Known about the structure:
The chain is of the alpha/beta class. It has 2 domains: 34-172, NAD(P)-binding Rossmann-like Domain (Rossmann fold, 3-Layer(aba) Sandwich); 176-461, Dihydrodipicolinate Reductase, domain 2. 36% of the residues lie in helices and 23% in strands. Strands 7, 10, 11, 12, 13, 14, 15, 16, 17 and 18 form a 10-stranded mixed beta sheet that branches. A 6-stranded parallel beta sheet has the order 3-2-1-4-5-6, sandwiched between helices. It has a two-stranded antiparallel ribbon with strand order 8-9. Helix 6 (126-135) links the parallel strand 4 and strand 5. The protein is globular and about 70 Å long.
Amino acid sequence: MMKRITIIILVALTAAFGCQSPSETKADSEKNDSSMVRLLTLDPGHFHAALVQKTSYPDIDTTVYVYAPEGAEVDAHLSLINQYNTRDENPTHWNEVVYKGADFAEKMLAEKKGNVVVLAGNNRLKTDYIKRSVDAGLNVLGDKPMAINTDNFTKLVEAFDAAKKNNVLLYDIMTERSEITNIIQKELMHDPVLFGEIKKGSEKDPSVFIESIHYFFKNVSGKPLVRPLWFFDPAQQGDAIADVATHLVDLVQWQCLPEVSLDYSKDINITSASIWPTPLTPTQFASITGKNEYPDYLKPLIEKDSILQTHANGEMNYTIKGIPVKIIARWDYKAEAGGDSHHAIVKGTKSTLEIRQGKEENFKPVLYIIPANGKDADSVITQSIATISTKYPGVSVEKINTKEWKVIIPAKYNVGHEAHFGQVMERYLQYLKEKKLPEWEVPGMLAKYYTTTKALEIAMSKGK
């Protein structure tokens, strides 16, 4: 009888503690559990919300809570997550727990089932969602742009103050810092023997020039992307100068003034800015959205022959700590070949570093070194690249003519734009572990969004 009782007790203990290691107490288990990141996906209207889940992370709970209104946007988001879960190679294992309803934001804030809010979608209320989330003590990983006008910027300043007060981290998704040609360009900019110093320029001859061309019609994760109707409304998506230009302004700060805590009230001066539309025919609009009719809020942008004049292009000229910069953000309907393109020139006193992405580059970004003086250029460039290759093995250089050298970057570093979202998430997870962002990041984000929203304000004032 005693033997039988002993067996029953052992079985009961095994059932109670079978999920724990012998050295793991209940308190330890709860501690480990509380250290996990739990994602809250709020109103995912942009495919970037799904791309942060394209890979798995050991520090992120596989159960993700999604809060959104009923509609095609949340369905498209869930379809992408399901695509990642069911792929043959390295499938993810996300469990999406979905709440759909008009009160989705209130529901998320009331339940607080997670600790990191992921925001990528309609930008009209994004800054408000950010502020409400950090006020509730939630961390936020927000897609760009986190502010699309000066009123938004004022609220964003308040949100960063609230995040500091509540000890939560507000961070935006800057994927271009992970693109290898941008990384190598930055490395070479800070090689005084090769680059020298940033050349003193002017608005007509800027020290830094970056142009980015995006396309409305594109493929994402192997399938044609269907864009929501509001994507073409500047009041909901934002003008290009306050949207795509966010990445470009960030690159300027990150490359030219790394780890510098900027003061947007003193360090930024917008000298000029302008915006102009991209015309889309009804057929083109239908191919992008799947809809044959324009919604009422787009009708003020319709001109003769039903052409939509969408707010898709912008240029800004500004100085940052005295460095003259020109930024151009453009959108066209569809690329004739290749995809989104990036052109960046940084002028130094000893050489110019230029990224091109045209036909000659097979529509892939390629970095060129253009010395100001050909004397001893071979040995200087060879030595600089040899130093780079100790950090990025395999990087080399090829002289293509008497004036230019092409940096050869192994294919293993070209992981693609979609993979960069995972790299941003990895950085953010590290910051969450450390419970702080680098000290220069918040001032940098404030400077960035001040630059874009102030430039838009100046551009729009021209038409008044």
